[in-house]
């Protein structure tokens, strides 16, 4: 069985994706409340920007399909996400905050295809990819279930029944989870191998890892 790329620690990377998916599951319902101040025109423009951003990223694959770029861009995505969580806790839910959060998510989504490509190239083996996808879906399902539990507890035990108040309260949990995500990402890479190790692909000839 082929080994993973030397720049990555497979077990630690799988843990990172689990915690990352846990965050996504927890936050999936909150974004609809955060986007309330936005007009439909913003979503139309955002969709266009997302498609354009994804296209631009794809044109740079020859340069950025590399372990070092994958680590840096993954860290950038998590820091953008963390800044959005912090903004929700610091500022009122008005148009500027909604735009900030929406633009941040669109930037991270534009890297989605790229990040999945790199995951596949780094993990290499079918068994590792199976464990990765199981961890991601398990984290996502657990996150959605946990979000329901948090909302129910806020309403029934704490008497917080307003949608905005519930979402803001949830963001305290999200802040903790996202800090764990950043820490897990940091542990998932052998940083001395990011530049010194082999590339992910070479001149469209396929895998070079392992």
Could you explain how this protein is built, in words?
The protein has 210 residues and is an all-alpha fold. It has one domain: Growth Hormone, Chain: A (Up-down Bundle), CATH 1.20.1250. Helix content is 76%, strand content 0%. The chain is globular, with a radius of gyration of 18 Å.
Sketch the topology as an H/E string, one letter per element: HHHHHHHHHH
E-strand count: 0
User: In the CATH hierarchy, what is the architecture at level 2?
Assistant: Up-down Bundle
Instruction: Give the helix proportion (percent range).
Output: over 70%
Q: Give the low-confidence spans.
A: 204-210
| Overall morphology | globular
CATH class: Mainly Alpha
**Sheet/helix structural class:** mainly alpha
CATH topology value = Growth Hormone, Chain: A
Approximately how much beta-strand content do the residues carry? under 5%
The count of domains is 1
Average pLDDT confidence is 90
Question: What radius of gyration results from the CA coordinates?
Answer: 18 Å
The major sheet is characterized as: none
Distance between the termini: 9 Å
